[in-house]
């Protein structure tokens, strides 16, 4: 079920109403679980079996890991959990990609390999819920988390509908305590009564409204310009390619952070706090700063469950650079079974490694007063974003020749104003939206916590803002709800 | 909480009221265009020939066909009433208006897409599908315009004196199919191949007994027959790239549908499916260019009509 459809609106209002009216703890929790499973089943049909498999597997393995004293047995159980989860993810997401590479390699070696494709449907949200369940068993293995008391609670953690299909990737340690009444800052034994609080309702609705605005008003209306440029970029001059890369950067940010805002807002209305997923990424001053601001729940997951276990920065410098590259390579592959995502990941890995290398070689850049000044920040942001937007090209352009052409034009400027003006003129509305978005992004950077402030406005002013947002969405909706880009991952 | 909920509700009501009110003022959608066309006063001294179908038919030039027919018969007026993405199921909703026009000949172009059902790639669901039921219910209560963005942008363009994109750019006597200058250009073969890849597996034709579009078309033909209107059905031309992309089962289902129409209706059936399949006259894998090179399509349709009216 897409968030940007009337179906979701009806679904959410129904869930909200029933939770508000029926104030029995057990019922509320069971109902929320049933509603979440229905939400998944609605668009995934029989693939719900995979979600149930992951849930059951990790619930029982989590308990077994916790109850076992023997270290090597604990390790074996963890390996079973990882194999069960990653095997499922690998099979459904990467089987055909692997077959393609195998056939290609076989043909290069004149072996005549021609393994038929499996043509499997990609289960929605599998990359997200797999990472959630992995973090659960790993945290139990590390002794950082107690296993969930009941299967119902664990199932709700895995399938909680706001974050089920595209995150944020929630850790069990963050979510599970929210299912229980708090007793002196720790989770008690009693199930939490879900009550709708005024402040949460207002903030949640404001977040959702801005999420919809980012997705349906900005991202969906900038998309035609991106398609216009990148569906066939060969022959385009540099400014057009740069415009395309910037437009795509804004489209994907509006699309994904919009989704995250809706998810966080919907959860908050129901009394659950999900972690922040974006924090003005286009004002990042370095590649590592970018990854502290972009898809935060994924980057922190990769840090805690991949980068640190690989040794992080505790070993040699060379090892650290290698770890950064490896993590970002896998992070790229996580996005999809395609080389363009791998290239995107490798580019970011290289950015992180080179940035680290520069800081290691030239410590003068650490806490440098010039770089901390206004002009220094502007320069840092500009350089960082140049590379971030360059990397968006392989993310968007799947055809290899077209990707190389676009990246070449992005780096080596070849400017023809007339062609650029033609594109701008044919896509005036999208260009205006890009400027407007950058302006709003800048305002939100300067004035922190703006959504919170809006949610605290008097009801009449709040209503004006809500109405304006709804009008902007309605008037510029083209009749076809567009998929969220991250639904494909 | 009541106050907040009420505020949210009011925001929706106010926004929807403003939206629907303004959209109705600026709307230039298909619905308005159709209403305007059917409420016209037509000159009844001329016999009307109606071309019906989807964008495949939309590529025909009504004026070219009309002038070819009227070289020998000066009393015919041809209207191309094709609509983008049209299907018999959608067209039958227009049946009353079409009959009121009292046409002497109806020419209906059918292609694979007219009988295709929406499919999700590789997603043959085993369990019941609540999404489909829900969408069907919602469609019955669909009171919102099809493309508000189009209307809004046109209103803005009009307010700033920038040329608007609407029915005024249609070809003569082709009221429902917007003309686009890109239709004049032939797409190179290598580009068609790319389209062929992107269109792969987009067609799935259901068995004729279960196919709603077949039932709708048959009903529509019955109504034309009852009014003694001459009916010409033609299978629209497709490029080789498109045809190569179809599965054998879909080709067979389509053939069954055509045979069913031939056996049970008083129609003249013409098959243009392969006529230009290898020619370089395609805008896309199933649309012939509006440009001069595409006039052969108009001429073949004209011949078809002439044959029927001269019988």
Describe the model:
The complex is a heterodimer of chains A (489) and B (311). Chain A has 489 residues and is mostly helical. In chain A, 70% of the residues lie in helices and 2% in strands. Chain A is built from 21 helices and two strands. A two-stranded antiparallel sheet of chain A has the order 1-2. The relative contact order of chain A is 0.10. The model of chain A has no long low-confidence stretch (mean pLDDT 90). Chain B is globular. With 311 residues, chain B is of the alpha/beta class. A five-stranded parallel sheet of chain B has the order 2-1-3-4-5, sandwiched between helices. Chain B has a two-stranded antiparallel sheet with strand order 6-7. Helix content of chain B is 46%, strand content 10%. Chain B has one domain: Rossmann fold. The relative contact order of chain B is 0.16. The A-B interface holds A 1, 6-7, 20, 38, 41-43, 45-46, 119-121, 196, 198, 201-202, 205, 221, 429, 459, 462-463, 466-467, 470-471, 474-479 and B 1, 3-5, 7-8, 10-12, 14-16, 18-19, 22, 121-123, 125-127, 129-131, 134-135, 138, 145-150, 152-153.
């Amino acid at each position: 079920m897409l968030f940007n459809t009337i179906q979701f609106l009806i679904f959410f209002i129904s869930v909200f109403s029933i939770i508000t009216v029926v104030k029995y703890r057990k019922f509320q929790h069971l109902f929320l679980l049933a509603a979440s499973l229905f939400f998944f089943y609605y668009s995934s049909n029989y693939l719900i079996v995979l979600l149930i498999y992951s849930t059951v597997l990790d619930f029982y393995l989590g308990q077994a890991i916790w109850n076992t004293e023997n270290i090597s047995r604990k390790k074996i159980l963890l390996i079973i959990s990882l194999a069960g989860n990653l095997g499922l993810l690998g099979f459904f997401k990467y089987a055909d990609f692997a077959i393609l590479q195998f056939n290609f390699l076989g043909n290069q070696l004149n072996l005549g390999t021609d393994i038929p494709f499996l043509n499997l449907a990609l289960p929605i949200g599998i990359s997200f819920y797999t990472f959630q369940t992995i973090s659960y068993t790993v945290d139990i293995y590390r002794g950082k988390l107690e296993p969930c008391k009941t299967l119902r609670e664990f199932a709700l953690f895995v399938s909680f509908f706001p974050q089920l299909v595209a995150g944020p990737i929630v850790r069990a340690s963050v979510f599970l305590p929210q299912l229980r009444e708090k007793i002196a800052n720790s989770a008690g034994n009693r199930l939490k009564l879900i009550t709708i609080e005024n402040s949460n309702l207002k903030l949640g609705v404001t977040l959702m409204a801005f999420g919809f605005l980012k997705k349906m008003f900005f991202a969906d209306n900038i998309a035609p310009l991106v398609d216009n440029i990148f569906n066939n970029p060969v022959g385009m001059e540099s400014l057009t390619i740069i415009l395309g890369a910037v437009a795509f950067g804004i489209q994907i940010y509006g699309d994904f952070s919009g989704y995250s805002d809706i998810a966080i807002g919907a959860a908050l209305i129901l009394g659950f706090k999900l972690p922040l997923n974006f924090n003005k990424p286009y004002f990042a001053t370095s590649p590592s700063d970018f990854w502290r601001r972009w898809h935060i729940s994924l980057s922190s997951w990769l840090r805690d469950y991949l980068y640190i276990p690989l040794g992080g920065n505790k070993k040699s410098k060379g090892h650290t650079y290698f770890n950064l590259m490896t993590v970002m390579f896998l992070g790229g592959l996580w996005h999809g079974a395609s080389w363009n995502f791998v290239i995107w990941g490798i580019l970011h890995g290289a950015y992180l490694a080179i940035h680290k290398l520069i800081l290691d070689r030239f410590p003068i850049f650490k806490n440098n007063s010039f770089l901390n000044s206004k002009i220094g920040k502007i320069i840092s942001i500009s350089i960082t974003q140049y590379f971030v937007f360059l990397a968006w090209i392989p993310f968007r352009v799947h055809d290899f020749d077209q990707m190389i052409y676009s990246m070449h034009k992005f780096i080596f400027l070849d400017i023809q104003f007339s062609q650029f003006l033609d594109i701008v003129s044919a896509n005036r509305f999208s260009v205006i939206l890009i400027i407007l978005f950058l302006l709003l992004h800048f305002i939100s950077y300067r004035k922190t916590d703006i959504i919170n402030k809006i949610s605290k406005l008097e009801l009449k002013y709040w209503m004006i803002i809500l109405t304006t947002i709804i009008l902007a969405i309605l008037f510029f909706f083209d009749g076809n709800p567009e998929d969220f880009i991250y639904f494909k991952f | 909480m009541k106050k907040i909920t009420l505020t949210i509700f009011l925001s929706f009501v106010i926004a929807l009221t403003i939206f629907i009110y303004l959209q109705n003022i600026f709307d230039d959608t298909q619905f308005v265009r159709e209403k305007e066309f059917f409420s016209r006063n037509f000159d009844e001294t001329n016999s009307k020939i109606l071309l019906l179908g989807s964008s495949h038919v939309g590529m025909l030039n009504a004026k070219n066909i009309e002038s070819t027919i009227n070289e020998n018969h000066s009393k015919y007026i041809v209207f191309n009433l094709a609509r983008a993405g049209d299907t018999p199921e959608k067209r039958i909703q227009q049946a009353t208006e079409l009959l009121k026009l009292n046409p002497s000949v109806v020419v209906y172009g059918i292609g694979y897409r007219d009988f295709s059902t929406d499919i999700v790639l590789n997603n043959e669901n085993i369990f019941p599908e609540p999404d489909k039921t829900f969408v069907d219910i919602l469609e019955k209560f669909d009171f919102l315009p099809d493309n508000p963005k189009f209307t809004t942008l046109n209103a803005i363009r009009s307010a700033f004196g920038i040329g608007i994109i609407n029915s005024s750019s249609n070809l003569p006597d082709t009221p429902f199919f917007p003309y686009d200058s890109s239709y004049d250009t032939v797409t190179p073969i290598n580009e068609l191949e790319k389209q062929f890849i992107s269109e792969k597996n987009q067609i799935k034709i259901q068995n004729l007994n279960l196919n709603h579009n077949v039932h709708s078309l048959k009903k529509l033909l019955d109504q034309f027959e009852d009014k003694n209107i001459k009916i010409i059905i033609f299978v629209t031309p497709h490029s080789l790239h498109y045809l190569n992309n179809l599965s054998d089962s879909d080709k067979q289902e389509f053939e069954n549908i055509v045979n069913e129409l031939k056996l049970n209706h008083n129609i003249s059936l013409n098959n243009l499916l392969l006529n230009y399949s290898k020619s370089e006259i395609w805008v896309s894998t199933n649309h012939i260019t509006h440009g001069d090179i595409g006039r052969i399509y108009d001429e073949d349709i004209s011949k078809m009509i002439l044959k029927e009216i001269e019988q």
